[in-house]
Known about the structure:
The protein is an all-alpha fold. It has 14 helices and 2 strands, in the order H-H-H-H-H-E-E-H-H-H-H-H-H-H-H-H. The protein has helices at 3-32, 38-62, 67-83, 85-94, 105-119, 140-154, 174-183, 190-218, 221-233, 241-244, 269-290, 294-307, 312-333, 337-345; strands at residues 127-128, 134-135. It has a two-stranded antiparallel ribbon with strand order 1-2. A hairpin with a 5-residue loop joins strand 1 and strand 2 (134-135). The longest helix has 30 residues, at 3-32. It is globular, with a radius of gyration of 21 Å.
Amino acid sequence: MNILFYLWEVFIFVLLTGWLVLLPGLYLTGFLRIPLTRIEKLSVSLAAGICGLTLLLYIFGSLNARFLVYVIVSLVSLFWLARQSKPWRRRIQNFAWLPLNKNNIFSVFLIISGALASGSILFRSGWQNVGGSLSFTEYRDAFWHLGLMEELVRQIPPLHPGFAPLPLTNYHYFAHLFGASYLFLGVFNNLDFYFRLFPFLLTLLFGLSLYIAGRALTKSVFGANLAVIFGYFTGSFAYVLPLFIRYPGFDWHESSFWLSQPFSMAINPSFALSSFLFLATVFLLTKMSVSPKKELAILITLIGGTLIIYKVYAGALFLGGLLVCSLWDLLKSHKPILIMTFIFSS
């Protein structure tokens, strides 16, 4: 691997994430005037930016006009920067753009550590050895996900990567479409992108959502830190099964209890991204339980309403939970805002 080229890819990847995702998300959260802390604004803006970008790609890509998405998103980013030009200079000078303060330094350290640890699992995959051979730490699922991203670069809706020319149906591929938004620009080596860039973004997003959801639910930084620790560094303990179950043919695997382990999150972009988006909706619903505003309902509808196309069971869990919450709220307070959020999300 060419280290200098990889560092160049890292720089471009960060720049594109800010331009295509973060700035449009900041514009939307600013337009809706939702009061958030820095780290909450960063997380919610990234969630809104991802869902907005992916939804636009799906709509315009189906019309063979995908280039218009990049024009629209760039105009939104430019508009946000133009509106923020003067205070933005002061923010850069005072480091006010960083989601960091003396009260959350340890939390930010935890999130970055967890993201690096989880995201690095695939780093050696696709690595070219002396002699030209390639090494992989995981390849079965990885080739499916990467193949689908490359197919989505070619056309929307995609053909089945394993059974072309059959169309791909009944599958949640918005996480792959989000990945394809980078590959479509043709500036990344596909193996570098999938194994050495994209996983770090996915695991970082997961940590951010763990923190804001944990803090909203527990009302404490300590609870938020515990959520990050448990989310990154613990699992279902399926890996201890061989100590107790020993018989010929027993096949242990990391999802023996149908609970994916956090350390394998980077292998499955649908699981990783849907976990981030699901926890973002949990955070927004918690905010809405305190202050039921239509602005929050709009964000929940955007993120939760598209969640099922990132991962089916995440979307089903969100819609089922929202239905229960909305019926309870309707009986308790007689306010229709949650049930309307459920209807529009559905």
